[in-house]
C-alpha cells in the first residue's frame, strides 16, 4: 500500500517506488488518484496515473521528441512545459498528438527565443484550436468592408493572406499598440471591434490561421490575449466560439472519420462497384451541375473503368481510321 498524505486543500503527497509525487487538487488526474487510493490500488497502478512523463513518452512516435524530467525535449532543446500538458489533454480526449508535434516543429523554426516563449502565454487561453498541419486558429476584428481597422489598407477578405516583413513587426511585448499584423482571443476581439445589428456598418469578426513560425510578439497589455505576426491566412467569418481543441487544415472541427481526399459525399465507388452505370442517367441526377459543352476540363480524382458496347459504331468504322488501329 502506498504511503500518502492529503492536505486540507485536497493536495496529495504520495511516495511510489521510493520517489515522491505531488498531485494538486486542481490537477485533472486528481479524481483518478483519489479513486485509486480508495480502492487500494497497487503502487504500479497508481504510478500509471501519476507519471505523466511515462504516459506521454509512450504516446509519442516522433524520434525528435522526448520527455525528460516532465518537460518536452525537441532535438535536445527544452520546450515550455505547457506543451506537455496539451499533449496529455489531447490524450484524454482521444485526439491525435501528431498535430502538436507539427506545431512544435513549426514553432522551433521561429528564429526568436522570446517569440517561442511568449507564444505559450497566448495559447494558454481557451478556444484557440491547433490545426493538423501544426498551425493555430485565432480571431480578428476588421471593418465592414474587410479592410483592417487601423490603416484601412490591408484586405482581410476570405482567402487572403496578408503578409509583411518580419523586421517591420515590433518584437517588444511591452509595447501594446505597435507595428505588425494582429490577431487575438475572442474576448479581446469583442472588446476591440465595434459589432452591432446594422449589417452595413458593423465590424466583421474573422477566423485566421497562423503559423507559429511567423509569430513575433505577444503584448502584455491585454493579459496576453493578442499577438503580432508577420502573416496569417483568412479562413472564414466568425460563426461561433471555437470550443474544440483540434481543427482540420480548413479550420473546421477535426473529425477522425472525415475523408480529405474525396469531395463527393453522395457517391461511394466501392459501394457501387460492379453495378451497371448509365452515364446519361447519372448526368440527369446531377441536375445539370456539369456542363458537357464547357471547355473547362472535368477532373476525376478516382480512377474509373468502363465497358463500352461498340457494336452500334460498326456502320461508321470505315469513316474512322483510328477504329481499325
What's the gist of this structure?
With 325 residues, the protein is an alpha+beta fold. The chain has helices spanning 30-38, 43-50, 52-59, 82-93, 98-107, 113-123, 186-192, 279-285; strands at residues 3-6, 12-16, 19-23, 65-68, 71-74, 77-79, 130-131, 136-142, 181-184, 204-210, 215-217, 226-229, 233-237, 246-247.
Largest sheet: 3 strands, antiparallel
Number of domains: 2
Task: Give the beta-strand count.
Answer: 14
Major sheet: arrangement of strands: 1-2-3
Q: Level of helix content?
A: 10-25%
Number of helices: 8
- Rounded radius of gyration (Å): 28 Å
By secondary-structure content and strand pairing, the structural class works out as: alpha+beta
- Described by the principal axes of the CA atoms, the overall outline is elongated
Amino acid at each position: 500500500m502506498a504511503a500518502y498524505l492529503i492536505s486540507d486543500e485536497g493536495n496529495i503527497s504520495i511516495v511510489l517506488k521510493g520517489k515522491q509525487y505531488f498531485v494538486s487538487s486542481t490537477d485533472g488526474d486528481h479524481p483518478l488518484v483519489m479513486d485509486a487510493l480508495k480502492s487500494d490500488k497497487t503502487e504500479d497502478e497508481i504510478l500509471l496515473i501519476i507519471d505523466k512523463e511515462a504516459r506521454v513518452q509512450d504516446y509519442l512516435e516522433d524520434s525528435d521528441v522526448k520527455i525528460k524530467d516532465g518537460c518536452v525535449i525537441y532535438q535536445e532543446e527544452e520546450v515550455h512545459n505547457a506543451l506537455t500538458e496539451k499533449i496529455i489533454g489531447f490524450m484524454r480526449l482521444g485526439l491525435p498528438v501528431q498535430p502538436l508535434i507539427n506545431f512544435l516543429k513549426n514553432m522551433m523554426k521561429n528564429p526568436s527565443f522570446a517569440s517561442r516563449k511568449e507564444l505559450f502565454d497566448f495559447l494558454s487561453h481557451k478556444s484557440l484550436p491547433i490545426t493538423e498541419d501544426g498551425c493555430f486558429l485565432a480571431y480578428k476584428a476588421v471593418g465592414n468592408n474587410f479592410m483592417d481597422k487601423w490603416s484601412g489598407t490591408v484586405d482581410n477578405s476570405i482567402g487572403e493572406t496578408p503578409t509583411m516583413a518580419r523586421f517591420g513587426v515590433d518584437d517588444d511585448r511591452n509595447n501594446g499598440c505597435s507595428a505588425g499584423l494582429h490577431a487575438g482571443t475572442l474576448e479581446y476581439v469583442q472588446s476591440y471591434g465595434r459589432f452591432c445589428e446594422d449589417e452595413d456598418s458593423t465590424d466583421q469578426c474573422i477566423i485566421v490561421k497562423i503559423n507559429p513560425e511567423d509569430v513575433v510578439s505577444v503584448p502584455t497589455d491585454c493579459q496576453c490575449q493578442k499577438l503580432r505576426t508577420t502573416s496569417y491566412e483568412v479562413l472564414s467569418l466568425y460563426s461561433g466560439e471555437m470550443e474544440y481543441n483540434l481543427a482540420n487544415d480548413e479550420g473546421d472541427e477535426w473529425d477522425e472519420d472525415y475523408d480529405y481526399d474525396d469531395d463527393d459525399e453522395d457517391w461511394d465507388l466501392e459501394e457501387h462497384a460492379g453495378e451497371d452505370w448509365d452515364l446519361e442517367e447519372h448526368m440527369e441526377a446531377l441536375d445539370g451541375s456539369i456542363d458537357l459543352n464547357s471547355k473547362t476540363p472535368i477532373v476525376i480524382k478516382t480512377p474509373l473503368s468502363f465497358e463500352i458496347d461498340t457494336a452500334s459504331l460498326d456502320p461508321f468504322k470505315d469513316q474512322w481510321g483510328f477504329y481499325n488501329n
